[in-house]
Design a protein that fits this description.
elongated; 80 residues; 1 helix; alpha+beta
Length: 80
């Protein structure tokens, strides 16, 4: 399950996908699949803060017009 949002990030159009699958294994699979499809560059090891791991990947755009990001969040107990 992924929710897409279209916004203007100030530097042009941005499409953001947030992975929300209830199952953390599926959520990570969704993130990795979309990051690969988008040829997006992932932040190494994600960002960990307050017991939450956030994975994020970004592609600078298609046809130079639209940037796309995808992300997924995991609670500490979902990663063990």
């Amino acid at each position: 399950m992924i929710a897409w949002t279209i916004t203007d990030a100030g530097a042009g159009p941005l499409i953001v996908g947030n992975c929300y699958a209830p199952d953390p294994i599926q959520r990570r699979h969704d993130f990795e699949t979309w990051a690969e499809i988008l040829q997006a560059t992932a932040w190494p090891n994600g960002i960990q803060r307050d017991g939450v791991l956030r994975l994020h990947a970004h592609s600078n755009g298609f046809d130079g017009a639209v940037s796309v990001s995808v992300s997924a969040e995991f609670a500490a107990d979902e990663m063990s």
